[in-house]
Amino acid sequence: MMQPPTIDDIRAAAKRIEGSVVRTPMLKSATLSEVTGAEVWLKFENLQFTSAYKERGALNKLLQLSEEERARGVIAASAGNHSQAVAYHATRLGIPATIVMPESTPTVKVTKTEGYGATVVLHGDMFDDAYAKARELSLERGLVFVHPFDDGQIIAGAGTVALEMLDQAPDLDMLVVPIGGGGLMSGVSIAARAIKPDIELIGVEALLYPSMKCALQGCQLPLGGDTLAEGIAVKQPGELTSAILKDHVDDVVLVEERDIERAVAMLAGLEKTVVEGAGAAGLAAMLSDPERYKGKKVGTLLCGGNIDTHLLANVLVRDLVRQGRIARLRVAAQDQPGALAKITAQFHDAGVNIIEIRHSRIFTALPAKDTVIEVECEARDAAAIDKVEQMLQAAGFNVERASLD
């Protein structure tokens, strides 16, 4: 196993990549501070050119290749931000790049990676298949393999973000950092411990993928499933990263899907910034356990902003449902003239807007003469929808509200 990078390696990486990656803003969020009870500082790594912090490690690695290695070219396996970072900076430096992605990778990510100048090879169903193929091609073609996290030069590059965070907000008590393979938190923890030894370091994983927590704490938890935070959905953390985090990190916490969704929606609604599920995991941790962070100055990384726009739209609408501002009401009524008018009148009187109406006459347990009318509606606040529900019941209708959970 290679040696972990030192603070000097991270400082050297910062000089090396200076001017070629964005020194992103680090801003205090007054609104999120109010919501969580902590003083919340956000590091906007979603403002990098490829919308993620991964550029730091990829560029640091590429700049240290020999002329002979550059001429041979590089290869990486990733369905996400690492692939775009390697593709973009390799092309910029005139290094041929091949990226192996699972066949299930969304077309938009494939097109984007090709747009940065890389050759994309689609292989297998899972990241693990793509990773194995990339290793195979690396040996076959003599390409330099660029690991997404378990590499000292990648980790040193990622650590540069902590140098900036502690320069921009020196009096932070705690850093809350998403963990997938552990490359980001490894670099951050080495840098942060060197600059501010007593700072508290909390890693965050999706509840469905607790691989690093189990590696560090020896627990056995189920692993797998569909998470919004696919950027940190890693089944096998790195050897080097696990060793570093064992020495440096105070705790690894797990966050549920609904908290990740809420964090993505809050960042869009309150901060007007688009963040992918993995990038919102730090805020999700604060929202799920506010007591732990209350009264502390907490810095977290919005480490990526590459979320599919359709998925983002779903998350935002689902959040409005959870807030009670959008609802689907199932209203049982007699199938006769005037029933619908009587129902819609209640919505009008309560000041609730109807988005969509559907009749269900066949797939219902009601008598044949009755119907279920499904009404999707939206209002300024949850109280208005509660009011229309009460008004419908007072008018003699049986009402059920559809639930997300």
TrEMBL record:
<comment type="similarity">
    <text>Belongs to the serine/threonine dehydratase family.</text>
</comment>
<dbReference type="InterPro" id="IPR036052">
    <property type="entry name" value="TrpB-like_PALP_sf"/>
</dbReference>
<dbReference type="InterPro" id="IPR005789">
    <property type="entry name" value="Thr_deHydtase_catblc"/>
</dbReference>
<dbReference type="Pfam" id="PF01842">
    <property type="entry name" value="ACT"/>
</dbReference>
<keyword id="KW-0663">Pyridoxal phosphate</keyword>
<dbReference type="InterPro" id="IPR045865">
    <property type="entry name" value="ACT-like_dom_sf"/>
</dbReference>
<dbReference type="GO" id="GO:0004794">
    <property type="term" value="F:threonine deaminase activity"/>
</dbReference>
<feature type="domain" description="ACT">
    <location>
        <begin position="328"/>
        <end position="405"/>
    </location>
</feature>
<dbReference type="InterPro" id="IPR001926">
    <property type="entry name" value="TrpB-like_PALP"/>
</dbReference>
<protein>
    <submittedName>
        <fullName>Threonine ammonia-lyase</fullName>
        <ecNumber>4.3.1.19</ecNumber>
    </submittedName>
</protein>
<dbReference type="InterPro" id="IPR050147">
    <property type="entry name" value="Ser/Thr_Dehydratase"/>
</dbReference>
<keyword id="KW-0456">Lyase</keyword>
<dbReference type="InterPro" id="IPR044561">
    <property type="entry name" value="ACT_ThrD-II-like"/>
</dbReference>
<dbReference type="InterPro" id="IPR002912">
    <property type="entry name" value="ACT_dom"/>
</dbReference>
<dbReference type="Pfam" id="PF00291">
    <property type="entry name" value="PALP"/>
</dbReference>
